[in-house]
Design a protein that fits this description.
About 80% of the residues lie in helices and about 0% in strands. With about 220 residues, it is an all-alpha fold. It has one domain.
């Protein structure tokens, strides 16, 4: 039984690692095509540009602040996946963009950028599906909505809290992006697509792939 437990933990851990690197790669693609990104990435991109700070470092700092909130109010949401998400999504995006710059690979046409945007959406959905199905901790940003729901005793639902936090992130991203003239690069069609498509696609990949694959390795009892 112990060996089976260890094997399950390792497989779920591997799913987290693969999923988070896929998400980080998707975030890098969002930033590269400059056609808008998900709300959290948009906010962190705007702030990092205004402060002249590396994106991965800024995102880690924001995640650390949110982590403190999660630790205070909902420790059970914290796990290996939480820490790995905090540290590696931003730096994976930075590394990808650095590599492409070194190889002088660019996507200058509208068609190539649209294609890369579609790839980014699919990648982030598959990565999130793996990360969620592994059930090894929640990202600090995802946990905030549940904490708000808990603190308001259900008066504010998770859905309402998440929509509100996304709006706040988009607003901060736009406001800070104005300072460096990148507001329409971080808020755009990619933001709209993320808002409407990622939820259903994540659910699709979970139901048809990641949940069935990882179910035999989940914790019991």
């Amino acid at each position: 039984m112990e060996q089976k437990h260890v094997k399950g933990y390792l497989i779920r851990g591997l799913a987290v690692v693969i999923g988070i690197f896929m998400v980080g790669t998707a975030v890098g693609f969002f930033k590269l095509v400059a056609m808008g990104a998900d709300p959290f990435t948009a906010m962190n991109t705007g702030i990092s540009g205004t402060l002249g700070m590396q994106f991965g470092t800024l995102q880690l700092g924001v995640n650390a602040l949110l982590f403190v909130i999660v630790f205070i109010f909902k420790k059970k949401f914290i796990g290996f996946g939480t820490i790995f998400n905090m540290v590696f999504v931003g730096y994976t995006a930075d590394f990808l963009m650095w590599v492409l710059a070194q190889w002088r690979i660019s996507f200058d046409t509208v068609l190539s950028r649209a294609f890369l945007l579609a790839v980014a959406v699919v990648l982030i959905c598959i990565g999130d599906a793996l990360y969620i199905s592994a059930d090894m901790g929640m990202s600090p940003y995802d946990a905030v909505g549940y904490i708000i729901e808990m603190l308001t005793k259900g008066k504010v639902s998770f859905r309402a809290a998440r929509i509100t936090s996304d709006i706040v992130c988009v607003s901060i991203g736009f406001a800070t992006g104005l300072q460096t003239g990148i507001q329409w690069k971080i808020i755009g069609i990619g933001t709209v697509v993320s808002a409407f498509c990622t939820g259903p696609l994540i659910q699709f990949f979970r139901v048809h792939w990641s949940d069935p694959w990882l179910a035999p390795y989940q914790k019991r009892g």
